[in-house]
């Protein structure tokens, strides 16, 4: 055999890093500032929704859930990236790699589930307005939030439990952080079960759920086209941010879910970084600046009247 087995306790090398030389400190500072911006922007919007009772509505609660998940995802990746930038060798233990896989996939899955819940909320509000308070009551919104978190927890836990026992025949991962596909590719034995589950997981998370979201927005657009101008403006103002967030997420998530080894190294690194760096910052800014009620409360928090 060309390569010997690597025990599960061995370290894995993240091969997508390159020697930054004298630019190492500059990149570290840039990433640190991004991390501070992510924390600041998300916390301000979350605080605005929390303190203003007029924002205690399903749409804003779901936005708060989206941003809370972004904070969790940022904590799972930013400190790790900052630490790796300061190292001369970029290695991670097998156990730590699996932990990172869990949190990254959990973050992504909760994100797409939250976007689905948000599309359902807008669908009911615009297409079935008379039933909105019944369908999106506090109790039903709570159940929806539990589903958004518990279903990804079960799905990702099972995925990682399939990957954890695999014996590895290599230790090079061509990314700046661990992902499940890269770990499974290093396995020595049969990975049929992993591959089948991975295919099902990808189809559900990146095809079925987005298709359901697209269907709800098609229905919303049809209702808007047959309504008055004021209804169209109101629908556009609340749905446009969700559509932008959804499009941005899928454009970056789909390539990351498949083998992109034929792409340039720089573009691979950009894709893998953008999905965990871009959305947490841009989504908070989008909701905080675009939605008038939320923008007003955020402005009040940042510049309180004395």
TrEMBL record:
Residues 41-246 form the G-protein coupled receptors family 1 profile domain. It comes from Periophthalmus magnuspinnatus. It is a multi-pass membrane protein. InterPro entries: GPCR1_Superfamily_Member, GPCR_Rhodpsn, GPCR_Rhodpsn_7TM, Olfact_rcpt. GO terms for cellular component: plasma membrane. Pfam families: 7tm_4. It is found in: Cell membrane. PROSITE patterns: G_PROTEIN_RECEP_F1_2 (PS50262). PANTHER family: G_PROTEIN_RECEP_F1_2 DOMAIN-CONTAINING PROTEIN, OLFACTORY RECEPTOR. Keywords: Cell membrane, Disulfide bond, G-protein coupled receptor, Glycoprotein, Membrane, Olfaction, Receptor, Sensory transduction, Transducer, Transmembrane, Transmembrane helix. This is G-protein coupled receptors family 1 profile domain-containing protein. The chain crosses the membrane at residues 26-50, 62-85, 91-110, 144-164, 199-218, 239-258, 270-289. One of its GO terms (molecular function) is odorant binding.
């Amino acid at each position: 055999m060309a390569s010997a087995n690597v025990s599960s306790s061995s370290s894995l090398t993240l091969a997508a890093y390159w020697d930054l030389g004298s630019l190492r400190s500059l990149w570290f500072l840039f990433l640190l500032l991004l991390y501070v911006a992510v924390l600041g922007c998300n916390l301000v919007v979350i605080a605005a929704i929390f303190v203003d009772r007029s924002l205690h509505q399903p749409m804003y609660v779901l936005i708060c859930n989206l941003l809370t998940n972004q904070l969790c995802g940022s904590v799972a990746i930013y400190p790790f990236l900052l630490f790796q930038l300061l190292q001369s060798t970029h290695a991670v233990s097998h156990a730590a790699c699996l932990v990172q896989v869990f949190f990254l996939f959990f973050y992504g899955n909760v994100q797409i589930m939250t976007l689905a819940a948000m599309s359902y909320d807008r669908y009911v509000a615009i297409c079935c307005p008379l039933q909105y308070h019944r369908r999106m009551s506090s109790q039903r919104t709570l159940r929806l939030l539990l589903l958004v978190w518990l279903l990804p927890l079960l799905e990702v836990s099972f995925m990682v439990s399939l990957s954890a026992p695999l014996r590895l025949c290599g230790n090079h991962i061509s990314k700046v952080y661990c992902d499940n596909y890269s770990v499974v590719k290093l396995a020595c034995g049969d990975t049929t079960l992993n591959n089948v589950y991975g295919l099902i997981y990808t189809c559900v998370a990146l095809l079925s759920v987005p298709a359901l979201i697209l269907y709800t927005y098609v229905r919303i657009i049809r209702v808007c086209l047959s309504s008055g101008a004021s209804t169209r403006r109101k629908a556009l103002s609340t749905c446009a941010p969700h559509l932008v967030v959804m499009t941005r997420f899928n454009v970056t998530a789909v390539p990351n879910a498949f083998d992109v080894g034929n792409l340039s190294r720089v573009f691979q690194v950009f894709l893998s970084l953008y999905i965990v760096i871009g959305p947490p910052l841009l989504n908070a800014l989008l909701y905080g600046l675009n939605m008038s009620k939320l923008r007003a409360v955020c402005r009040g928090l940042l510049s309180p009247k004395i």
